[in-house]
Structure formats: structure tokens, C-alpha cells
Amino acid sequence: MANLSNNITAFLNFLAFMCSIPIITSGTWLASKPDNECIHWLRWPIVFIGIAIMLVSLTGFVGAYWKKEGLLGVYLVCMAILIVLLLLLLVLAFVVTGPSGSYMVPGRAYREYRLQGFSYWLRDHITSADNWGNIRACLADSGICPRLNNQYVTAEHFFAAHLSPIQSGCCKPPTICGYQYMTPILWTNPTNAIVDADCSIWNNDPSQLCFNCDSCKAGLLGNLRKEWRKSNLILIITLVILIWVYLIGCCAYKNTLTKPHSKK
């Protein structure tokens, strides 16, 4: 039974080791997105978690396969900490990314976004006055808006596009302002310029556009929510696997401690 438990633990830790690869890949994908590039402290947490899972799983595999009591002990402590941290990250991610802040616009395929529709924590930590200046400059330098000119030529084509939240919030004025389409980033003659503060903030200068608008801040949060929701699915599957690996690892550690030692 001891050998069976150890072998199962070794196999499951090898499986957890392999699971760390898509987690690291997912984290790298997140870090490469324009919004995460502009929010440095959000760029690498999933990558770090993937690397930690890889190292801890390798420790558990070696400890179980070669029946090393010390390594198994270290592995169990580190795995318990990792599971708690991963659980806390998932709870935080689901709580702060719950509200979407999006709404449909008549005659448009894309959605638009209200800043008040997102969680207070996200708004306070990402779009506050202390943080937005650097984020705004980073988004303006990313070139995400000028690229729309190469993708959409006519107004009909543009209005039928499924824009990303950042493109919808930062690269054009809110639809309610009544601006007339010229190009994806050139709009003129608003018919309802006082209905929303963002209407007067819009500027056709490619370095300005709506990067100072609340709709742009909301678009950034919409992008973050969409991307992190995709990554959460991978993290949930990983957490379930890690809990099973940990429970069986506890059995393997107990069996290792109680196995008969040969007498010299």
C-alpha cells in the first residue's frame, strides 16, 4: 500500500508538473496583452503561480518516487501554501471581475462600457488619478487605435465590428454623443455634446482620442475582466488537481513515516 500510494503521488505530481505548462503559457499570453502591459503589477502573477506549481510538483515527484521523507515534508508545506494562495487569487478574481459594466448600443455590433458598472476595487486600484496618467500614456503609445484605420474603411463595416472593450472605449467617442463617423479614429459634428462628460473630452488628435474618458477606463477594465475570466477556468481545473494531489501526498508521507526500516 505504501508503494502504491507513493507511485500514485509521483504520477499525480508529474501530471501537476505538466499542468503548469499551460498555466505559464496562459500567464505569458495575459502579460503580452496591451492592457496588462500597461498595468505592470498585473502582468506576471499567473506566470509566477505556474512556475511555483512546476517547482513544487517536481519536489513532490522526487520525494514520492524515491521515498524521501524530507522532500515530501517540504513539498506538503509548500503545496498547502500554494493551494491557499491560488484559492485566494480565484476568490479575488471572481469578486472583482463579477460586474461587467457593458451595455448594448442600438445599431452597433460592439458594446460600450460604463465605469460605474465595474467593481469599486478595480476602479480604485487601476483607474484612480494616481495610476491613470501612466496607463493612459502607455495605451496611447501602444498603437491599438490607429490600427483600426487599416481594418475598417466604411461606417457600415465599422459599426458591424466586434471591437474589443479598449477599442470601443478609447478609440472612439461614446455613441450617445452623436458624433459623425469619418474614420475609426476621426469623428466630427456631435449632435448631443453635453449629454456626457466624455463627449467634450473626445479629441481627434491620435495621441488624445478618448484616452482621458471614463469610457476608456471602463474599456480597460472590460478587457481585464474578459481576459482574466478566461484564465480563471485554467486556474480552477489546476486547483482541483492540486487538492487531490495534496491529499494523496499526505497519505504517501504518512506511509513513508510508518514504513519499516531495515536493521543494520
From TrEMBL:
It is a multi-pass membrane protein. Its main location: membrane. GO terms for biological process: auxin-activated signaling pathway. It holds the Pfam family Tetraspanin. It comes from the Eukaryota. One of its GO terms (cellular component) is plasmodesma. Keywords: Membrane, Transmembrane, Transmembrane helix. Belongs to the tetraspanin (TM4SF) family. This is Tetraspanin-2-like. It comes from Nicotiana tabacum (Common tobacco).
